[in-house]
Structure formats: C-alpha cells, structure tokens
Automatic annotation (TrEMBL):
Family per record: Belongs to the LOB domain-containing protein family.
A UniProt-annotated Pfam family: LOB
Domain of life: Eukaryota
Positions of the UniProt region annotated as Disordered: 109-152
Residue spans of biased composition, Basic residues class: 143-152
Protein name (Swiss-Prot/TrEMBL): LOB domain-containing protein
PROSITE patterns: LOB
Domain LOB, first and last residues per copy: 16-116
Amino acid sequence: MSSREGKGGGANNVNQACAACKHQRKKCSNCPLAPYFPPGHSQQFENVHKLFGVGNLLKTLKSTNKEMWPTVMETIQFQADARRVDPVHGCLSIVRQLKAQIEETSKELEKTNEELSAESMVGETPQIDIKPKNLAQPSATSRKVRKGKSNA
C-alpha cells in the first residue's frame, strides 16, 4: 500500500469523518456529502450549512440526477461563499458587477464601431488592434497611429 492511502477525504477514508459528519458528530459511512466536503473543509461546509442547512442540501441532491451532483454542489458552495463575503447581496453583487462590465464594454464596442465606420467613409482602411487591453480605456496608441497615417 502507498503512503497516501488513508489520508484525505471521502467515503474511502476510514480514519476521518467528512466535514458534514464532523459537524453533526456522527460516523461517516456512505455519506453523500463526503466527496464535496473532505475533512479539512469544515469552514466551507459551515458556510453551506448556515445558508441552506443539511436537510435542504440532501433534499436538493436527491431531487437531481447523480451525474449533476458535482455541478449542483459547486453552485451551492459558490453561493454560500458569496453570501459569506457579502451577507446582504450574496451572488447578486457579482451579477451586478458583471452586468456593469458588459454594459461598459458594449458602449466601448459601439464607440469603436462608430469610429471605424467614420474612418471607412473617409476612405482609409481601418486598422484593428486585436491585442488584449484594458476594457475601461480606449487605446491611446491606436489613436496616435491613425492620426499619424492621416497626416502623412
């Protein structure tokens, strides 16, 4: 046997209970939560337990297909962690932040398309720089390059 056997989490571990079973002070045998809350992840389980509760967590898992359990648990853990960071808004603050970034980027794209359309009407061939850049600010160097070509 290797030196790694017997360590870590999950139902294969005879020596240690998973974080969910530790919290409930019971022996971990055939626990459906063991793969998602290994012994060292007690804080993560506490976050999920505080938001959803063990009963609701088990009901949610039993109401979904087994192959979807990893995705369901990942989502539940993400929501619990977001609620720990922002107790008032939780995931909503992340959604709002992403929505604001999308709106800002859409406005920048619209402005860039207007600039390209105006330049193509003048007869210039538009030059598009596809390198990643800061989405909040248009590239100052691309404006200088275009101005330099029009003056020459």
